[in-house]
Amino acid sequence: MGEVYRARDTRLDRIVALKILPHKLADSAEARQRFEREARAVSSLNHPHICALYDVGQQDNIDFLVMEYLEGETLAARIERGALPLDELIRFAVQIADALDRAHRQGVVHRDLKPGNIMLTKSGTKLLDFGLAKAAGLSPMTNLSSSPTESRPLTADGTLIGTFQYMAPEQLESRPADTRTDIFAFGLVIYEMAAGQRAFDGTTQASLIAAILKDEPRPLDQLAPMTPPALERLVRTCLAKDPAERWRSAHDLKIQLKWIAERATEVLALTSAARRTHTREKIAWGVALLLLVAVLWLGMSGVRSSPQPAVPMRSSLMPPPGSAFLPYQFAISPDGRRLAFVGVGADGRETLWVRALSSSSAQQINGAEEANYPFWAPDSRRIGFFANGKLKIVDSAGGGIHIVCEARNGRGGTWNRSGTIVFAPNFVGPLYRVQDSGGAPVPVTRIRHQESPQAHRWPYFLPDGVHFLYFQDWSSPNDAEGDGIYVASLDSPEPKLISSELTGTAAFASGNLLYVRDRFLIAQPFDSDRLETRGPPVPIGEQEVEKDLAFSKSGFSVSDNGVLVFQSAADSPTRFVWFDAAGKELGQLSEIGYRDPRISPDGRFLAVSADDYRNGKRSIRIYDLKRGVSTRIATSGEFPAWSRDGKQVTYVDVAGNTYSMEQIPFDGSGSAQTLLKGGKMIPNDWTPDGHLVFMSFGKGAAEISIYSASDKRASIQGPGAEAQFSPDGKWLATQGMQGEVIVQPFPGPGGIIQISNAGGAQPRWSRDGRQIFYIAPDRKLMAAAFDPQYKSASAPRALFQTRIVSPSFVLFQYDVGPDGRFLINSFSSNSSAPLTLRIGWTTQHKP
How would DSSP label each residue in 22-58? Predict the structure, then answer.
């Protein structure tokens, strides 16, 4: 948009580029003001890949810019000689993306990004003319972009073709341009570097505009066969017609480009990792190299068709530095080459990661924060997951995130080759089916009893892509079909029971049904045509496997060709840890496998659900905090709650489809007494006068119910979850159905007082009843002062960042002692608990 001269700065004795405002714009006051204002904005972009702006001013009524003088050639001139090599392309693209990221963070949008505005120098790329496309107060179709700096081969005299070649659809339609406009142009630049030709072309302005607005460019792999699929997808996402479907930021683009570059050097990463000094890591990566060979062999030959058995191998997979594996939240790809998993960082955030088994490092998926329960598409490329109440899809090799449909509390999904996803949108209710392209989901299983809390979870397609396994849980006494593993079909709502003795996740691989029983991973021959087992179950190895009994999710995943990943109970990443109110760690319990902590009223004892009784269920243990010893008081049960006098412990047990609320002396001096029987129930807390608040489950929702010890009856209080009474029993804190912590008077009447303001769960009272604690979505432990006299609460404040297993609905994972200390089931600050990888187990478990 200006005339540029080579000049000498006589003060600093250096060569500069001097750019002046053209004479035709010199009389425009607005143009001159914006010329200076935008120039000052560009001057703040101090970046090695942005052409530096040294000065701006006016002399003899001529506005000028003093800029860095660059020696080299434009990217446009380089492309005239043909497409760029991949390594050079990616190196330049990363530099351009980094420069764009800096500009966008400073609020500067280029709006005229094209090869002619990118200079190639000895030090790398340099971006020119930042911000100047917005400098003139002209209409969008005749703005300053249509009069670019005179530099061959940009815009031919008298035409606008050169400018339109790199305009985004919103620019052509006179809509506002933002950072996503630059991302569209960036995609065009990469396309041209890879293909050696422009993505869109036309013989006239009208035909060119029509092509940009409606057509898709020719696939890169047709023009440049060696183009990596990940780069193809990156460009395709940049060139989405709708700005909302493009990459969110230039920073995301830079990360993806670096990932593409790193994938070409994965073997070198293994070699580097093997040179680490830590002995265990040396051994692990040595085994990983062998596993890589085995994985590649499996991928080429296939377990089923190979006449030679695979050599059994075992290795450990470590989490990324500073992160921990979230229990039960990982999935091996169908081809056995990559692992998707959810990692928890030091900031408490959950993020989706992907790691190639041939690599020593994992790649974080941008935009997949708060992800849960990932599962793969049959192409071993795309990943489904649940986040923010939605079922989403992301391409693991690069690309935007696609929302498929609503899924409030997703509990597992599976994907067939026809693009059908079967998933559990909630922790209760039936399974649904939906196409991966989106649409309205429809039920594919059914809950026969209308008011049943029954839950269908963890579906898994069998090889035909029509039948699928799933686990049925929380069945009530009124349900004709009880808990167990079932197989259903896309063609029929009638399920077939596989086993009522099995609980939790079931999968199929290499002719075997895989599941966890008594905490051991089991393989049992299974006829996928007749849909029945046909041989005895055999344990796979001797390690106990983690299992979430709250939602019956087992900690293993298996590929189509038998690559197995599981989470050993011995490698459990969580412990009960003591903290003070400032977040200082004060110590921890050495025992593992404890859940649902409840400290006795006097602070002497701890009641827990323990995983030490091998019948597929938990037991109730009392841990003496002073002596460090524990005693089992109930051989089957979970979710303990103390009576206010500290003499009794209430818990829930299940037999068949019937749940029973039991109460037992804490010292084991008597037998358990049944308080209540029915469907799924979870005791929470007692009042001093004998009212028990517990969670019950109606159709599709959790409810707060109250049991009265005096009349031995229960009634529903209302929707909610995770409740606790104040010490005097006059107030009840719960997580409301809007996801916020609330307080209400008990037994009422009275209004609701909202405690949290940005989501919260697991409310607890201080022992003096003057504070309410809860867990925020980012895992921070929050506190709010409560004044019962004035029925008010203060604004919540953060006490400290926890590493609690989950901030959402998984019931109480912490408790508050009488002395104000917090006992939290949490990841340790340096958690590095691994996952276990096994290959070749099928040689010992032939169906």
Answer: -HHHHT-HHHHHHHHHHHHHHHT---TTB--EEEEEE
